[in-house]
Design a protein that fits this description.
10 helices; 49% helix; globular; 253 residues; Rossmann fold; alpha/beta; single chain
Length: 253
């Protein structure tokens, strides 16, 4: 580790185990759009959402996913054609992606205002991750690149004793793709090796297939939100596969 390096980390599924909170927020937001849905999410729908979570790239999609689950769409059916199913829901209810993003953030804000501790408790960090991040910070710069609103990331990390500088966090507020954020970080760290840690395999494969940032070292976080078979597929593309135990282990010595 003598060569200069930087780490870029996804948040949900790499640092934070947020699936239950995302499911509840998605249901609450959906029930404000579609009045036939109960105000309280059934536990079985949370468990079903856990199985569908790997397809979700941005939080607002949880609203649409929970609607589909309420309508008794099967897990397989959602996986097979979720883009079209999302489009139909959006069009039929005269929704917009921008409006759904706003609603999802507003629903979280309302929960936090009502009971911030409860919301934070629904967003636990993975075991040992706090120590790992603190050790990483002693050795090299690190950043978070996420599709989550920055205020939510900061709140969760602050509750766990981790403070981020403004330039360490690239969230939904910046209106940048993860690829664009990584490119910007490479420009500000010329000559340094960038490691990108992500639990969503399609995101990593897009980087490989587009070929826009070929020098980035890609790490697949197998402990996060991914599908059966993703681990083996990642290996076929020469993506480094890590489990939570080995993640950042060299920095803990």
């Amino acid at each position: 580790m003598s060569d200069p390096i930087i780490y870029v980390l996804d948040f949900d599924g790499v640092i934070c185990e947020s699936v239950k909170e995302t499911a509840i927020t998605g249901w609450n937001a959906a029930s404000s759009i579609w009045g036939d849905m109960p105000r309280t999410v059934p536990q079985e729908k949370i468990e079903q959402f856990r199985l569908v979570r790997p397809i979700i790239e941005t939080g607002y999609e949880a609203i649409l996913t929970m609607r589909l689950l309420y309508l008794e769409e099967t897990i397989e059916a959602i996986y097979n054609n979720y883009s079209e199913k999302f489009k139909v829901l959006i069009d039929d209810a005269n929704l917009t992606v921008g409006g759904l993003k706003q609603l999802f953030g507003d629903t979280r804000d309302a929960w936090i205002k009502n009971d911030a501790n409860d919301w934070i408790n629904m967003n636990p960090l993975y075991d040992g991750i706090v120590a790992k991040l603190k050790a990483l910070g002693q050795h090299c710069p690190w950043y978070i690149v996420t599709t989550k609103h920055e205020r939510f990331v900061k709140l969760i990390l602050h509750a766990n004793g981790i403070e981020l500088a403004e330039d360490q966090l690239y969230g939904l507020d910046r209106n940048m793709s993860k690829t664009e954020a990584i490119k910007e970080l490479l420009k500000s760290h010329p000559g340094e090796t960038l490691y990108f840690v992500e639990d969503r395999l399609p995101t990593l494969l897009n980087i490989i297939r587009n070929g826009e940032i070929p020098d980035v070292k890609l790490i697949f976080a197998s402990w996060g939100y991914n599908r059966p078979g993703d681990k083996e597929l990642a290996k076929q593309y020469d993506v480094t596969v890590q489990n939570l135990e080995t993640f950042l282990a060299p920095f803990m010595a």
